[in-house]
Design a protein that fits this description.
4 helices; Aminopeptidase; 39% helix; five-stranded mixed β-sheet
């Protein structure tokens, strides 16, 4: 079950859980990590980036953290939902992947998105995304400029 965190909840759990979960799942660790994390928190508090806690119906104990952001393709005008980060803690049941995707899909549709996309190098995340109908044929290529 996905629970969208409020600004107060984000501020309350930032240091104890959210910040480290995001750092753990960032696709590329930025050179100025502290500055990047401050920006990420500010984006969440301004509701430009959503933060979700993953729980079961029986417990409010977080099993994971997910962040999302609505994006607009400036060329096509299409609105999509980016899953920016996903961190599953130790005991994340397999059945929650599909349930959470369906909840996220409803949210994305509700804010006018036509697709959800994410990038990952985690085989389990890729496998579960495929089970939810994701197309994994495209590959993200990243060229670091040093």
């Amino acid at each position: 079950m996905l629970i969208r965190l409020s600004g107060d909840q984000i501020a309350r759990y930032w240091k104890s859980m959210i910040k480290d979960a995001i750092i753990e799942s960032l696709p590329m660790v930025p050179a100025e990590l502290d500055k990047a994390m401050n920006t990420i928190m500010a984006q969440m508090l301004q509701d430009k980036l959503q933060c979700w806690a993953v729980t079961t119906k029986d417990s409010n104990e977080p099993l994971g953290i997910c962040t999302t952001q609505a994006t607009i393709d400036s060329n096509t005008g299409e609105r999509s939902m980016l899953i920016y980060t996903t961190t599953a803690f130790d005991s994340f049941p397999d059945d929650l992947w599909v349930e959470n995707y369906l909840q996220l899909a409803e949210f994305a549709k509700g804010v006018g998105c036509v697709r959800i996309y994410c990038y990952s190098d985690n085989p389990r995340v890729i496998e579960k995304a495929k089970e939810c109908g994701a197309d994994s044929a495209q590959v993200l290529l990243s060229f670091p400029l040093l």
